[in-house]
Specification:
The protein is α/β, with parallel strands linked by helices. It has one domain: Alpha/Beta hydrolase fold, catalytic domain (Rossmann fold, 3-Layer(aba) Sandwich), CATH 3.40.50.1820. Helix content is 26%, strand content 18%. The chain contains eight helices and ten strands. It has helices at residues 4-15, 113-118, 121-127, 156-170, 186-197, 245-258, 279-288, 298-301, and strands spanning 72-76, 84-89, 98-104, 131-135, 174-184, 204-208, 228-233, 239-240, 243-244, 262-267. The two termini are 34 Å apart.
């Protein structure tokens, strides 16, 4: 039991079919006739927005019929996987494109964890035009909610993320440059994996008690995307199922920093818990770090004084 989460996570990464081919394209089974991965952006990401091509996110195209977007539970049906329920939090009266937060919940939790984690900041984010998308996990994934955390090479959770992003951008509800991800525990490990394997469109991430277990070394889908990461853990007592999340968080920070990404570390010291007092700072962090905003504005100024004192 003590090794289950760590060993499973490493096994998933070793078995992950999303390896990088010799030509640098991601081999996820969605190949064009010439064998290269089809990661062409939608029309939304090729508009004349004044951004150079290298600073634009590459948004996937929907593979199924997109659901009607409402504030509440909807079902996405990407090709190649069973339909999956997702809880959307959005203000239908504000149809302009805003930021998106993909929220991945912890083991034993539910999508409503997103509202708990972001506290009162969730309502303000939604009112300002933001969208929060919190998937339900697949009941067949295993003990730890998300396939990759259980040692599975199954790509359903990543295909679901692609479909959520594709449908929301296509509908004009999400700015392609403002796709962010966060999660707690198993959801934070899922966010870590997403930051590597979907760096084509991930602008910035926040992990609560996640990071990189020793030996986890996935291939970065888009190496030139130097996204920002706010990496949070609970200190020396943040250790469950035999995983030292403080060490895993530090390893994630060191890996990203070495590769030229901006990282900030927060140690709230309360063990394996969600630091709800960090919610306003999380929203501010996402807003300050859209896709292509390199280097992060915080690289020069440091974190704002409004961030928790346990962040650096």
């Amino acid at each position: 039991m003590r090794c289950l989460l760590l060993c499973s996570f490493l096994a998933a990464c070793a078995a992950d079919p999303m390896t990088t081919t010799d030509d640098g394209a991601t081999d996820d089974g969605n190949a064009t006739d010439d064998g290269a991965a089809d990661d062409s952006p939608t029309d939304d990401s090729t508009t004349d927005d004044g951004l150079p091509e290298e600073s634009r996110a590459t948004i996937p195209t929907p593979t199924g019929t997109c659901p009607t977007l409402v504030d509440g539970e909807v079902t996405f049906a990407p090709a190649g996987m069973p339909p999956r329920r997702v809880v959307l939090s959005l203000d239908a009266s504000r149809p302009a494109a805003g930021p998106l937060v993909l929220y991945w919940h912890a083991t034993g939790s539910l999508p409503r964890e997103a509202a708990y984690s972001l506290a009162s900041s969730a309502a303000g984010f939604k009112t300002a035009g933001g969208v929060i998308a919190a998937p339900f996990s697949d009941a067949t994934a295993g003990q730890f909610e998300w396939f990759i955390v259980n040692g599975s090479s199954k790509q359903d959770d990543f295909l679901l993320a692609d479909e959520i992003v594709a449908c929301l951008v296509e509908a004009g509800r999400v700015d392609p440059q403002q796709v962010h991800s966060m999660g707690m525990s198993a959801g934070a490990l899922q966010t870590t994996a997403l930051s590597f394997l979907r760096s084509n469109y991930v602008a910035s991430v926040v992990t609560y008690s996640g990071g990189m277990p020793d030996g986890f070394a996935p291939t970065m889908q888009r190496p030139d995307n130097k996204f920002a990461a706010l990496i949070v853990d609970g200190g020396a007592t943040d250790n469950v199922f035999g995983v030292d999340f403080q060490a895993a968080s530090e390893r994630y920070a060191q890996t990203l920093t070495t590769d030229g990404h901006f990282t900030a570390r927060c140690d709230h010291g309360n063990g394996h818990e969600i630091p709800r007092d960090a919610a306003p700072s999380v929203i501010a962090f996402f807003a300050a770090n859209p896709f292509g905003a390199w280097p992060s504005p915080y690289a020069a100024t440091g974190l704002p004084a409004s961030f928790p004192t346990y962040c650096e």
